[in-house]
Amino acid sequence: MDRGRQSGFSLVEILVGLVIGMLAMLAIFQTLALFESQRRTTGEGAQMQQSGLAAIYLLEQDIRLGGFGLIDNGGMPCFNINAYGSPQSIFKSVPLQIVDGGTGSDALVTARFDSDTGGIATGGGRAILTGNLAAVPANLPVDTGRGFKPNDYILISQSGLDCSLLEVSSTYAYAGDPTNVPVQAVANAAGTASTPTFPTYTGSSTSPASYATIVDLGQTASFITSRYYVSSGTLLQSDNGGAGVPLASVIVNIQAQYGVAPLNSQSISCWTDATGNKCSPASGDWSNPTSGDFERVKAIRIAVVARSALKEKPTGGATSCNTTTAAPASWSSLGVPTGSSAPPVIDLSSDTDWQCYRYKVYSTIVPLRNVMWGNM
Which one, 126, 184, 284, 332, has the greatest CB density within 10 A? Predict the structure, then answer.
């Protein structure tokens, strides 16, 4: 063999080639890591947007229904309802209530009747009690029983008293005794009747307008209360005190304020937190408002905070998370009427790793249409 005619790479050339290859691979992997980080950030942003918009949409739809069947043309006919047979025997029957979460997330509670007729009086008008009502009534003395049918749900209200939810007896016949309607307690989920103690409704023979009135709610007058709250990064809905049902993921906080109008007005002039004395509540504090205070609430402003599902790595050589350095804001203070509460502060510090995530805030104003329509 002629060794002088052989050719190939020297050891030095091979080493140089390996170094160049390693540098190229390093650049490729860094580029891939950058693209993967951008892809993940984009994907997390899309998920936050989807969940945040879904949460806002679902809250808005239910809030708009708040007060259905509970609003009279003179306002709310009652502040509390004795809904016997339901999970709660007495419930605050206001269209919407904000439960202040302190430094955490607020919760929202809506109430309505799920009836085809809502609170619309049947038979051309409401029936009126013509005599006192016993604490546990078996019969209702009324001016007319026209429009009532067997097994109809009825709501009895009188100013200054809680309302009562009863059911017309299955034996009722208008032709039999049209001014004496037999009633029974509402059956609970087990099918058995509860044993309620009703308010004692009274009226004046010289002032019929002060009598208690009765509204026929139809055959399917389900009284529904829905609570919306955040737990473990998920927006949940609980109806009538039941288990929470997940509505939207990666939701970590809700903040809300009441939009308050002057008495006998529909124009919001003030925004207030669910606590404190802003907007001049009659009770002195929105943590314990009166029925008159709730009748002044015409809208609610909501901020929903969505968070990325995965943590981001520190950047710029930092040793601790620095993806988010300042907590997100609920909404701007620009244009907020004088005398209002400041925009709510979103406090995420209960999670020690809160700075490792990205956040998006979605806010909206939802009018309480049943409250406004009931005061026209």
Answer: 126
